[in-house]
Amino acid sequence: MQTSAGSAWTISIATGDRLTVARPGLTHVVHLDEYTLDLATAWLRERVQRWPHTTNPHLLTTQQGATDDRNRPMHAVSFRMLFAPMGLTSS
Fold it and tell me: What sign has the CA pseudo-torsion 87, 37, 27, 9?
């Protein structure tokens, strides 16, 4: 599933178990368990519904990032605010 032309990622629904991250000259495959795949697929559907015309290639984005034509990734502060209440930190 790819949400917009030129996106840097895809989720393969056909095989149902992997996230493919494509970068210039490099493709990285992450194998996903069923629960994670379900969550990622649900998020991508939500993302397409919320921002159908975004050109932001990043899997995770915010309302500001999805509508900003500079296609910036989520800021580290946004990640901390999102995950800190769950006791998770980035590494």
Answer: negative
Listed residue (58, 48, 59, 67) closest to 3, CA to CA: 48
How many angstroms separate the first and last alpha carbons of the chain?
Answer: 27
Question: Quick check: pTM over 0.90?
Answer: no
| Each residue's pLDDT tens digit, 12-65 | 555 567 777 766 777 778 888 888 888 888 888 898 899 998 888 887 888 888
Domain boundary assignment for the chain? 51-91
Judged against a pLDDT cut of 80, whether residue 5 lies above it is answered with: no
Q: How far is it, in rounded angstroms, from Cα 11 to Cα 83?
A: 23
What does the alpha-carbon distance between residue 38 and residue 23 come to, in Å, rounded to a whole number?
Answer: 24
Dihedral sign computed on CA atoms, order 35, 46, 71, 91: negative
Rounded to whole angstroms, how far apart are CA atoms 18 and 34? 10
